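Technical annex, item 7. During the second reporting period the consortium partners agreed on a shared format for inverse folding records so that results from different sites could be compared directly. Each record opens with the tokenized structure and is followed by the designed sequence. A conforming record, contributed by the partner at site C, is shown below for reference.
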């Protein structure tokens, strides 16, 4: 795939010079694609850095400072050098008169084993700051790196070699960005282990998928390192009590029903907010959520996903351009759609074989054949026909996976005849529709997080108000998450037919039933599983994000085809 030439900013931040020296791919992700992810190291670094992040102390202009003996001690100073193509926000500037020294604060300990006493990337960033100060008329012959952990000041002389190297890095950074082609991941690098962007970058996963495609080799269980937390600490906040209100108190979201507090969630521990039916959210709470990138999803009382409030779209326009190009390319769209449908059929077949006491042999064989056909069928309409026929076979055997059929006091029973919706007319269909709506929300949130337009898909064609890409991505997870949760709550007695009510011809869960179902659904997403491709253990919630990011790697030409998620 030929990447478009990007219109990059005139000036490169000195911090990006550091990132480029450390890892060009990291600099591309942050500067070009606008990605960032916190981890314990970055959070600790920001905390330790807080003092010099506050403006303080005057910095007189270079001409005015000439001949003055007043001591300079200026914090958080932002200057630019257009001729050097650099801009820099400097932690601290010390000096007397026109002679100044930039002081850059770093979280860790000084690398005493290096003769220079500081990392190459740190020295280049400091030198970039020195070049900016020189361009603004100051005398700047050296700088200082202060390593907070070891409380060490390391003086760095700005000699000709370091200046030349820094300028080369600046030009390399700008050329990389203008090229519009993300650099390849580092190979088995120890740098990746503590990098906060590793879950976004997927270095080992990308390298492995490329190698396996080239070598036609089978993956080994221990071939890929898990460079991300197994589970996501941030969890969604669900509010479904009718008449409830979500407000903000300090850094916490609180749900109230009149004078009764229903629950709370700290902002930094919240992935998104889901509101069902007649639930209000205050302007203050909504504003605080959007400020920190927490989307607020709105559902009907019955669970229909209506839409989502979110902040500004992700900065990664490059990914959306690739998405648009692919969506309007019938051949490439069909290739992705085939993978989605094949994986869905295979996972439906697996669920049927695992949960049906006597899975119909003919159905199982036909579904295996249809999964193969899905990978080679010509035309989107024919693929849709294969998918529909496979779904008919699957749901034709679905009732056999249900172990509880005794009717409740209200006359309902967990008897499944066929799939129906809008509205669902029996408890099982009500559960499936509710679970599919939650899963569509999950992928809409994740697609937005990664930088996609969730409304433009490849298998599901665009339709007003429909998150087509989210529906594409959820296909392979319908049986693994939604159907599995529905069967679990039925077969393990978590829900009974009495947890449902009639609304005309429709069936709907009671408030109590929805709460129990949501707990089961979240437990499923939090379940640790062994990734069938990469061999490490992560939660289903993490798997969803990995799949969305791998789709991005496909669209940007880093890996040859979408690696669909199928259980063995």
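Designed sequence (site C submission):
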């Amino acid at each position: 795939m030929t990447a478009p030439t990007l219109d990059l900013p005139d000036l490169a931040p000195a911090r990006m010079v550091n990132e480029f020296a450390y890892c060009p791919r990291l600099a591309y992700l942050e500067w070009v694609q606008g990605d960032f992810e916190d981890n314990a190291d970055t959070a600790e670094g920001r905390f330790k850095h807080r003092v010099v992040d506050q403006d303080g102390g005057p910095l007189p202009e270079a001409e005015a400072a000439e001949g003055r003996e007043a001591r300079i001690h200026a914090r958080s100073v932002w200057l630019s050098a257009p001729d050097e193509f650099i801009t820099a926000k400097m932690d601290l500037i010390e000096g007397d008169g026109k002679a100044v020294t930039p002081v850059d604060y770093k979280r860790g300990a000084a690398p005493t084993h290096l003769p220079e006493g500081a990392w190459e990337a740190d020295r280049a960033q400091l030198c970039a700051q020195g070049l900016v100060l020189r361009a603004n008329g100051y005398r700047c012959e050296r700088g200082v790196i202060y390593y907070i952990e070891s409380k060490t000041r390391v003086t760095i002389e700005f000699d000709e070699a370091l200046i030349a190297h820094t300028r080369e890095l600046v030009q390399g950074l700008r050329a990389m960005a203008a090229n519009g082609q993300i650099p390849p991941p580092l190979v088995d690098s120890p740098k990746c282990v503590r990098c906060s962007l590793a879950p976004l970058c997927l270095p080992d996963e990308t390298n492995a998928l490329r190698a396996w495609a080239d070598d036609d080799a089978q993956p080994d269980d221990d071939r890929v390192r898990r460079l991300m937390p197994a589970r996501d600490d941030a969890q969604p906040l669900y509010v479904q009590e009718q008449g409830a209100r979500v407000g903000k108190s300090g850094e916490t979201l609180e749900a109230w029903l009149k004078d009764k507090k229903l629950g709370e969630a700290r902002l930094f521990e919240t992935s998104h907010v889901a509101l069902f039916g007649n639930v209000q959210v205050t302007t203050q709470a909504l504003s605080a959520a959007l400020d920190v990138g927490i989307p607020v999803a709105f559902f009907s009382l019955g669970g229909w996903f209506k839409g989502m409030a979110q902040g500004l779209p992700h900065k990664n326009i490059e990914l959306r351009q690739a998405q648009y190009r692919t969506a309007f390319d019938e051949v490439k769209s069909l290739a992705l759609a085939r993978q989605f449908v094949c994986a869905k059929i295979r996972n439906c077949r697996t669920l049927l074989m695992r949960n049906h006491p006597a899975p119909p042999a003919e159905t199982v064989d036909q579904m295996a054949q249809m999964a193969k056909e899905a990978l080679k069928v010509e035309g989107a309409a024919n693929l849709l026909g294969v998918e529909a026929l496979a779904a008919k076979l699957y749901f034709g055997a679905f009732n056999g996976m249900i172990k509880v059929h005794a009717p409740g006091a209200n006359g309902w029973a967990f008897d499944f005849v066929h799939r129906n919706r809008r509205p669902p007319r029996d408890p099982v269909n009500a559960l499936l529709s509710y679970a599919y709506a939650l899963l569509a929300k999950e992928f809409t949130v994740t697609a937005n997080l990664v930088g996609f337009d969730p409304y433009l898909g490849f298998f599901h064609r665009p339709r007003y108000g429909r998150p087509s890409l989210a529906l594409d991505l959820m296909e392979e997870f319908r049986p693994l998450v939604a159907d599995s949760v529905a069967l679990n709550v039925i077969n393990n007695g978590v829900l009974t037919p009495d947890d449902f009510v009639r609304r005309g011809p429709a069936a709907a869960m009671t408030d109590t039933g929805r709460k129990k179902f949501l707990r089961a659904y979240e437990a499923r997403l939090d379940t640790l599983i062994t990734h069938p491709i990469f061999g490490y253990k992560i939660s289903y919630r993490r798997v969803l994000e990995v799949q969305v990011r791998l789709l991005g790697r496909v669209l940007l030409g880093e890996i040859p085809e979408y690696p669909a998620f199928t259980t063995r």
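Residues 12-178 form a domain with the Lambda Exonuclease; Chain A fold (CATH 3.90.320.10). The chain has a mean pLDDT of 86. All partners now use this format for quarterly exchanges.
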